[in-house]
Specification:
mainly alpha, 2 strands
Length: 140
Amino acid sequence: MSIKEIQEEIVDEFSMFDDWMQRYEYMIELGKSLPLIAEQYKTDDNLIKGCQSKVWVHAELNDDKLVFTADSDAIITKGIIAILVRAFNNQKPQDIIDADTEFIDEIGLKEHLSPTRANGLVSMIKQLKLYAVAYQTQLK
């Protein structure tokens, strides 16, 4: 599935909920299904800067595709990173670099987060794309 298709699927899933309490509950559920980062990668190097909560992300290249694992010490934040990992996991680095993140606005996530969480969301997206840039340069 392409990034765009996955993003559309996420937008469809969020549109099934009537209010933000249900959407938050769904995000918490998504966080529980997150491919968890191995303890050895829970280091300061893998900590996303700019997040109020602790969020670790690790990326590896597997058959020219990036595989992300992540974790957070906060349940909502874990749900947010789970959404991003789902959108970008097992994709080619160049596709991640080129992908837009309008789906975040479509589900209304940014406007329903506190300013510090919204900044953290931007930092998470930036970090995933930085991993993609780093691995893309290795592929050339």
